[in-house]
From TrEMBL:
Gene3D superfamilies: Metal-dependent hydrolases. The lineage of its organism: Bacteria, Bacillati, Bacillota, Clostridia, Eubacteriales. This is Amidohydrolase family protein. Residues 2-181 form the Amidohydrolase-related domain. It comes from Candidatus Scatomorpha pullistercoris. Transmembrane segments: none annotated. InterPro entries: Amidohydro-rel, Metal_Hydrolase, Metallo-dep_Hydrolase. GO terms for molecular function: hydrolase activity.
Length: 186
């Protein structure tokens, strides 16, 4: 069919088994270790998509209704996810971008994944690359998406601000959205 399989894996053993089975992207990879990262490179796994937004919003109790146990668990999960994300990047594994938020929460907290990654020490340029070209690589569309170049599909968002200098610019709704080069909204 010309496609591949992504696996939802948090645990170390699950990551390893999925990679050995030929899975091409590992979603979350919360407890990745060096062996997991090496296996991903050895087996041609495209990369991983950590999703900090959900535990990040729970750990901060934005709703005002999160149980204390969930706040503690979420804070712990974020630390593991960030460590795994950094380990993957250092090993040469492509790190993509995702949120795991439903539509309602994504609308409520725009840019929360950008904020979370930056807060935990990922520099702004790296976060922007993860959200663009690196994610395009994971879905094997980097020849058409992920960068602004002649001949590529011009799916773009225009942000009021300089997210390379201040990632909080990504917490606003885009001023303009372009789809295939035509203004879609804005």
């Amino acid at each position: 069919l010309g496609t591949y399989v992504a696996a939802h894996c948090h645990g170390t053993q699950g990551i390893k088994e999925a990679v050995k089975a030929g899975i091409k992207t590992i979603e979350h990879a919360s407890y990745m270790d060096e062996e997991s990262a090496e296996l991903m490179l050895k087996h041609g796994t495209y990369g991983t998509v950590p999703t900090l937004a959900m535990p990040y919003t729970l750990a901060r109790d934005y709703s005002g209704a999160t149980l204390p146990e969930f706040i503690a668990k979420s804070s712990d999960a974020i630390r593991h996810m960030v460590d795994s994300m950094k380990l993957a990047a250092q090993a040469g594994v492509t790190v993509g971008f995702g949120t795991d938020l439903d539509f309602e929460n994504a609308a409520k907290y725009p840019g929360i994944e950008f904020e979370a990654r930056a807060e935990y020490g990922i520099d702004n340029i790296t976060v922007l690359r993860q959200a663009t070209i690196d994610s395009a690589k994971l879905v094997r569309m980097d020849d058409r998406l992920g960068t602004v170049k002649a001949g590529k599909i011009a799916d773009l968002v225009v942000i009021d601000g300089k997210p390379d200098e201040d990632i909080s610019a990504m917490k606003q709704y885009p001023a303009h959205v372009f789809k295939a080069g035509a203004e879609f909204c804005g």
